Amino acid sequence: MAFKRPRANSPTSSQKRTRGNGQTGYVLLGTELPPDKDSDDGTFVPEWKQTVTDERGRRRLHGAFTGGFSAGYFNTVGSKEGWAPKAFVSSRSNRKTTDTAQRAEDFMDAEDLAEAAESRELETAQSFATIGRVGEQETDGFFGLFMTEEETMGVKIAHKMGWRRNQGVGRKIRRGVRLDDDEDSMSSAHMFAPSDSRVLSAAPQDINRKGLGFQSEARLGANEEKETKDRPMLALPFLDAPKKQPTKKIASKKSSFGVGVLNDTGSDDEDPYELGPKITFNKTLGKDKKAKKPSKFAKPGAGDKHVFVKKAAGKAAPRSTFDGKPPLRGFVLTIQSVDLTTKRKYPPPKIPPGWKSTKSNVPVSTGDDYTSVTDAAKASTLDAKGRASLLGETPLPGKSVFDFLSKEARDRLANLTGKKDLPQGLGQTAPEGYSSSEKKQPKDLWSFVPVLDKATAAAALSNGTTGWMPYSEDLKKRARYVAFLELRSGKKHELPERPTDMSISEWAKELEGFVQAAIAFRPATGLMASRFTSSTSSSHPGSGDVEKASETLLRKPEPKPEDPAEQAAKMGMYGAMTRQSFPFYPSRLLCKRFNVPPPPEVPHGSDYTSSEYGFKGKTEEPINRDAMNKIIHEAATRGNPMMQRPAWMNETEPPSGEVPPTKVPAAQVPRERVEQHAKVDVEKNEALSQERAAEDVFKSIFGDDDDDDDDDE
Amino acid sequence: MPSFPTTPIALLTGHTGPVHALAYSSGAASYILTGSADRSIRLYNPSKAPLAAAQNTTDLGLVNKYSAHGYEVLSLCVNDNNDLFISTGGDKTVFLWDVVTAQTVRRFSGHSGRVNRGVFGGESDSVVVSASFDGSVRIWDCRSNSHKPIMVLDEAKDSVTDVVALDGEIVSGSVDGRVRTYDLRRGICEVDVMGHPVTSLEVSKKGTEILVSCLDSTVRLMDRANGQLLKAYRDEAFVNTELRVRSTLGMNDSVVVSGSDDGMVFAWDLLGGECLHRFKHSERRAVNSKSSNTPRVKKDIVSAVAFCKSRREWTSAGGDGNVVVWGMPR
Question: I want to staple A423 with a disulfide (CB 3.0 to 4.6 A). Which of A90, A253, A338, A402 is the partner?
């Protein structure tokens, strides 16, 4: 609040300051203080010199034209735009919630805030008023710090039961009034509460909060002594007795560098940092210092002279118990103090003479006398029976293998193994009920017969009856093959016969070969089977040429079935057979760069990552129906099938990839010819009715891939 | 049928190693870029290097030299504006060159094998498509500064030897004997099995046929629509079984020209399929005999042929480091 003291327009006479040192009646001493500009001492100041201040003494009117009130940035609030109170915005949809309630601070400017902050002062809560209380050194600093003054529950209950502070607990006793320790005034006896007994503090003595194995400095012993002396809560005075004895201070070996506060004995004469003998240096100027007086303090470890102050060994006077009562009847106070601190030490047990520790370094055993278990077992001459008798075992009721072995067999075994100590072969016959090993053999041989799918076996068998069958060069083998297939298709149940000159391993291998052959020469099923009819005329197994081809097929089985598209390409049958397609996903940026619309299935915004679009491609069906028809048709209309046979099937022709160049015009598939074929009547399939291409062509292309086609169906 | 240019009209010399790459400049096609195993690329003006004069002096008609490759140069491609070209080679990197300054503008690295072919693609040559020995085709963006390819087509099981970028399609040929056509519009890749390692691809002007060179000494013209064989071009003397030689279509897609393993150049009639001419590159003459009886020299190979799009002129380059321009007699 700006105020302006009303002043007279013209100076009154009293306000008129006398100019110069005209006063003769005064003697002026010293220098006159410079006139205080700011002080308003009531002297006349013309209006134009007066300043307007606010209540805090700050100038309120500025500038050339000082008639206005310049509130704003320069003397009121801290922003150029002026002070703006916090806005209160609340609408129907967006209610101002009450949790952001307006506080008084919202309407205060910096000045007010500073004032409010000044008026605030830090105080402790009432219950923690004990912090920093003086005169309680006994309680350990940190443990007392957080204890509140509140009374414990026990105290509260005792209060309710009539107990008062500083009273003892128990029946009231009648005694005289004690007034200021004046025991004599036994004027009248009243009932008084028993006097308070001191709390028996059972705090163990050795509590110190030092680390394990820490040996405190020897000099601290003096301090400890004082501590125990001052301990008021110590309720067992006899425990103090050993402490009272002056302990001999041992100079600490592990002394720290320098000197600590606790090590300072308070005498300035002693320089802990000085080196060497003390006499050598003279530390005073002028005159020689007098010889040192012995310090009144014992300075343990510092000097070579120890001054011991003899103390009374113990009080001779009979002491009372800690609560002032005489001891109970029948008990006597101990004079001897119990030394609880020093533990009794037991001497270590004596080691019996001749004892050796196992932990001590074992002398390395020499290789000669060391024998391993296996060596020892080898060295022993005992056989199993001998060991059993040695151990006292009853002999097993069964018989040994050697009981059944003939003598020759046993000798052969002994020769082979080099062991002469084998039991004698007794050559006994097998007991009753056990058939001979000859009859048992077939059952074991069943394990050699490989597993074959029943359907496959049946299919291969049926193929053999209608079409041709492998092993045409070896009829016996073929018979075995048929027998095997019959077994696996469930028609027979006997073991496949084994030639006498064939070992079991060879026989098992042959059976494995049968399985492969059955899988390989299973007829086409499904779609492919419906496309082909089995041959009746040309490819009879007896005819020489085809048998040769089949033999080559048999003898050199392809390690990996070749891609039919690859084979078709090598045969020059380009077109639908050699074409596959799979979806791929061009990145959108690529389509953008090529200015083409991206295919619809490309996920929007996705970019190319190889993991995402790696090999997602699905191969379409390699041969569709009309393509197949076209192939068959072409093959049928080209004339002699032997002419068309690819070169690799005919060893006489040079092994070039396609039809030799001389036959180019005939063998090529020009477009005009394809168009010619379009006129052929589709209803009547000449390919099936008239002439067929060589079966081997188709077999070589499609023969091994029946499985895939079946899967596709 | 117009006559085939059979007269050597210019000789471009200067390379010290076999020339593996040839490219006519776009537009008027008055310049020829050559890339060689001697790690350099040269720009020639063939009209300044007539055969008679060039036989005596080297570097005749040389316009510029481009050297940044550390390995052999295997392919070249000039863009439509004639201001940039691509070169690829054994350094697993695609180099994008500025023609005038002879500095590389961009280098696309990411292939893990030598880059067999690099072509411009996309609208206004905005991408570079490269085919590499590592079995992948990578498409690089010329417009952004990204060092990563836009896309990697790694379906090939073997080295990809050639790639063609068409309008909305990318065709790649691989040693695994397949020609893969990636149709960007349909999102379908069509695989045509050729049965033999593919070494060169060239698409006709119509875009419906593709000329495929295979390592069975056959050049085939395939119908791109259904993968059928339209024509196979062979000759008794034509040997191409182990080396990557280029084949090309020329004279408005009426002839097929291919180099060979033994230094011969063959020209076939596209429709008829009969061999029109045989040329001996090193002797710079046409050979009439059906079989070349000269002993085969190891370095004698014609690995690159290029047909001029605007004139009746074509170029062959081979193991001797010389480039022969064949044209009509003046």
Answer: A402
pLDDT digits (tens, 9 = 90+) for A596-637: 888 876 655 444 444 334 333 333 444 555 555 555 565 555
A666 at B interface, C-beta within 8 A: no
Complex-level ipTM: 0.87
Residues of A in contact with B191 (CB under 8 A): 579-582
Chain B residues with CB inside 8 Å of A569's CB? 177, 193-196
Contact A476, A499 (CB under 8 A): yes
**Which residues of chain B lie closer than 8 angstroms to A598, CB-CB?**
184, 187
Question: Residue A53 carries which side chain, given as an amino acid letter?
Answer: T
Do A447 and A430 reside in the same domain of the chain? no
C-alpha distances out from residue B205 to B78, B210, B251, Å? 17, 10, 11
Locus of tokens 């029948």: A330
Chain A: closest CA distance from residue B160 (Å): 17
Q: What is the pLDDT of residues A230-248, one digit of tens each?
A: 444 434 444 444 444 444 4
| A216 within 8 A of A250, measured Cβ to Cβ | no
Least Cα distance to A175 among A198, A204, A195, A201 occurs for A195
C-alpha A413/C-alpha A207 separation (Å) is 83
Reduce the DSSP state of residue A240 to 3 states and report it: helix
Residues B7 and B32 sit within 8 Å (Cβ to Cβ): no
| Torsion from C-alpha of B183, B184, B187, B190, nearest 10 degrees | 20
Residues 6+ away with beta carbon under 8 Å from B214: B177, B194, B195, B196, B197, B198, B199, B220, B240
For residues A419 and A481, state if they share a domain. no
Nearest to B122 among A593, A657, A661 (CB): A593
Q: Measure Cα distances from B118 to B21, B75, B110, B121 in Å.
A: 11, 6, 13, 10
Domain boundary among A523, A543, A573: A523
Q: Tell me: the pLDDT tens digits for A183-215?
A: 555 567 788 888 877 766 655 555 566 777 776
| CA separation, residue B298 to residues A186, A333, B301, B319, B320 (Å) | 145, 126, 8, 9, 10
Nearby residues of A625 by Cβ (< 8 Å), 6 or more positions away: none
> What are A38-63's pLDDT values in tens digits?
566 677 878 777 777 777 777 766 66
Is A589 within 8 Å of B196 when comparing Cβ atoms? Answer: no
DSSP A710: H
CA dist., res. A486 & res. A465, Å (int): 12
Amino acid letter, B299: K
Q: Are residues A501 and A475 in the same domain?
A: yes
From the CB of residue A689, how many other CB atoms can be counted at a distance below 10 Å? 9
The residue among A490, A506, A523 that closes a domain is A523
Q: For B152-207, how does the pLDDT look when each residue is reduced to its tens digit (9 = 90+)? A: 988 888 899 999 998 889 999 999 889 999 998 888 899 998 888 999 999 998 88
Q: Which two tokens stand for residue A661?
A: 């160049």
Q: What CATH class is the domain B7-327?
A: mainly beta
Residues 6+ apart with CB under 8 A from A96: A88, A89, A90
Tokens of A96: 């101002």
Here the tokens at position A513 are 């070969």
d(CA B10, CA A549) in angstroms, rounded, equals 57
Domain residue spans in chain B?
Answer: 7-327
Domain range for A688: 622-708
- Which residue among A583, A594, A658 sits closest to B188, beta carbon to beta carbon? A583
Q: In this structure, are A430 and A452 located in the same domain?
A: no
Helix (H) / strand (E) element for A508: namely: helix A504-520
> Is residue A507, in this structure, part of any structural domain at all?
yes
Q: How far apart are CA A625 and CA A371, in angstroms?
A: 82
pLDDT above 50 for A536: no
